[in-house]
Structure formats: structure tokens, C-alpha cells
Amino acid sequence: MFPLETGIAAIGWKHIVMILSGIVLLYLAIEREMEPYELLPISLGIILTNLPLAGIMPSTFEIFEGLPFEDLGLMGPVWKFGVASWAILPPLLFLGLGAMTDFNALLSRPKTFILGAAAQVGIFISFLGALALGFPIPEAASIGIIGSADGPTTIYTASQLAPQLIGITAVAAYSYMAMVAIIQPPIIKALTTEEERKIRMESTRKVSDTEKLLFPLVSMIFIILIVPRAGPLIGMFMVGNLFRESGVVDRLSDTAGGDLMNIATIFLMFSVGASMSAGVILRVETIGILLLGLVAFAAGTAFGTLFGKLMNYFTEEKINPMIGAAGVSAVPMAARNVQNLGREADQHNNLLMHAMGPNLAGVVGSATVAGILLGMI
Question: Average pLDDT of 135-157?
């Protein structure tokens, strides 16, 4: 018989299931290279937190809030202050994303902004579906945002509305991002004809440096005035982009999009994984959350594609409706997926830069929708 203070004596079947789940995610991250920067630290966090008595995180959220600081474990303080209470880490990721973003494709064809907005319909469909299944409104909103396929936005929304769902919603969002090439093609092909997939689009116009500088500034002011709760995400995203486009603070831009973003990614993803203890995740509701997230992502893909088809009835310049599917926020995977489908229909078709417009619009759109949900609830 093992001494009672060992983890072997305390481990149960639920811990084993979660450890095996973490190993599966670890395999997908390393062997299949599916969102490795996110899934690898998440998977390691899952494995460590489900080793009993390891002191990584408290085992349940019910006792988490009542624990003194010194009993929160290794990652407890990071999770509590960086994610759940103060929610610092997701906006820091948006700062880095902004510093890495080039809005040229979106600004050269502004009408593609509409496609990014259309793809957010899936969020509301899943939100209503979660309500119909009996989830409370805050949890339903956290589940619906999975459809944006935007990990930081999903984590931020859940941290504000339903901290107990952060782990499973984050894993769902990043998993669906990683599976874009599997989920989207059947939907896109079912909603478009081969002729539509062959549509070639004209080269985008040259965007001036002034436009690139004004866009993040004006967007930041306008969106936050209309949707104040989107401020932390939209604000940091546009600040990072202003670092980039100003051309005078290269060190700040490089740090935001480099070392700072890497540090935030390590702490955010590892603490999210560490929050996924067996007692929190292994519930009947978990399956419903995963399915609703998939519905949201599929619906966003479908609505973006259908709106692309609809736009061709009202615009003189024809667009390839597939670029509407890139309106989900999986950057740049969704845009690359559209490029591959375009090349499959016509090997000389080049849709990548055209798809990047809706793709980036989707990032702005999902953060704005998150702000709307936060403001309503």
C-alpha cells in the first residue's frame, strides 16, 4: 500500500482521463503541428494539474475563491490575476497580434469588412442554442464566442462571464482553429459552385502610409465609443498596430510582437491548461460545449460564404465567395484554406491576400461582438 501523501494513492479514473487527453493534445501539437504555440503549453498544463497533490492549481473552482494566496499553487496566482480576475494576459496577446498585423489587404478593399461581420453570426446562433439547452446566459455567451475561432477573445470573454469554462472553451477554440482545413472545405464546397470557386479577383490597390496610420486610430476611437466593453481587446490590438505603422518605435513594436507576446502566451496557455482539472472539466455539459462551439464555427463559415455570394448580386466587381469563409478569426489559417481551395479549382488563382481582408475583419468583429455580449450581460 502506498503512503497516503503520494499522488498514486490519490489518483482516480477522472485524473487518468484528463492526463490522456493532455497527451493527445501534446501529440497533435508536436506531431501534427496543430496550433503548437497554444496547444503544447495547454496540454502540459492539463497533464500537470491532474497529477494529484502536485500543487499546480486548486482542484475545483468552488474552493478556489476561498483560498489564501499562498495556497493557490504554482499557477493559481497567474490564473487568478492574469486571466480570471484582472484578465491582463488576453489583452497583452492582442497587443502583440496588433504589432504583427498588416491591414493592407482589408484597407485596399474595405467592403470585405462586411464579410468579417457576417461570419460572426455563428456566435449568436450558438449563443441561442446554448440558451435553449439550459445554459445560464453568461455561460451561453462564453460558449457562443468559440465560433469566432479566436482564442484570446474566447478566453477573455469566459474570464469575465464564466471563469469555470475558460479551459474547455479555450481548448475548443484553438482546436477548431487547428482543424480549419478539415471543417471548412466541406461547408464551402456545399455552398458554392465550381465556377464560383474559380472566380479570380483583381489586384488590390496600393494603400498609403497615412491610411495605415489613421485606420487603427479611428477604429479604436469609434468602436470603443460605441462598444466600451470591447476597449481592452480592441484598444490593445490597435495600439500594437499603431506601434507598427508609426515607423518610429521599432523596439516597442518588436517587443510587443515578439518577447512580450511569447511571455504572455506561455503564462496564459499554461495557466488555462492548469485550470482544467478533472473535477472542473469532466461533466456532461462539456460535450454540449464542444458541440455548440463546433456549430458556431461551422455557422460562421457558412454565413460568411453565403454573404460573399449575396454581395455579387449588388457589386459590379465580382468577388470569390469563398473569401467570406475567412471572416472567422482564425488568422491566417482560414485565409490559407481559401487559397488552397481556390488553387484546387484553378491552379493559377491567387486568393490569399483577398481572403486576408475578411480574416482580419473577423478579428476586429469578434472582439467587438465580445464587447457587445459583455455589455449586455
Answer: 88
Q: Three-state SS string across the chain, please?
A: CCCCCCHHHHCCHHHHHHHHHHHHHHHHHHCCCCCHHHHHHHHHHHHHHCCCCCCCCCCCHHHHCCCCHHHCCCCHHHHHHHHHCCCCHHHHHHHHHHHHCCCHHHHHCHHHHHHHHHCCHHHHHHHHHHHHCCCCHHHHHHHHHHHHCCHHHHHHHHHHHCHHHHHHHHHHHHHHHHCHHHHHHHHHHHHCCHHHHCCCCCCCCCCCHHHHHHHHHHHHHHHHHHCHHHHHHHHHHHHHHHHHHHCCCHHHHHHHHCHHHHHHHHHHHHHHHHCCCHHHHCCHHHHHHHHHHHHHHHHHHHHHHHHHHHHCCCCCCCCCHHHHHHHCCCCCHHHHHHHHHHHHHCCCCCCHHHHHHHHHHHHHHHHHHHHHHHHHC
Task: Let me know if residue 194 belongs to a domain.
Answer: yes
Q: For residue range 247-285, what is the model confidence (pLDDT) as tens digits?
A: 999 999 999 999 999 999 999 999 888 888 887 777 778
Contact call for residues 152 and 233 (beta carbons, < 8 A): yes
- Check residue 177 and give its pLDDT: 78
**Arithmetic mean of pLDDT, 182-210:** 90
Whether residue 32 is contained in a domain is answered as no
Domain membership flag for residue 23? no
Query: Within 10 Å of residue 86's Cβ, how many Cβ atoms?
Result: 11
- Hey, CA dihedral for 86, 372, 256, 162, is it positive or negative? positive
Domain that holds residue 208: 87-268+283-376
End-to-end CA distance of the chain: 52
What domain count does the chain have? 1
Residue 175 CA: distances (Å) to CA of 4, 147, 169, 183, 261: 37, 11, 10, 11, 20
Which of 38-42, 90-94, 163-167, 283-287 has the lowest average pLDDT? 283-287
Interatomic CA distance for residues 220 and 146, integer angstroms: 23
On whether residue 54 sits in a domain, the answer given is: no
Q: Are the beta carbons of 296 and 91 closer than 8 angstroms?
A: no
Q: Going by C-beta distance under 8 Å and a sequence separation of 6 or more, which residues neighbour residue 34?
A: 28, 175, 178, 179
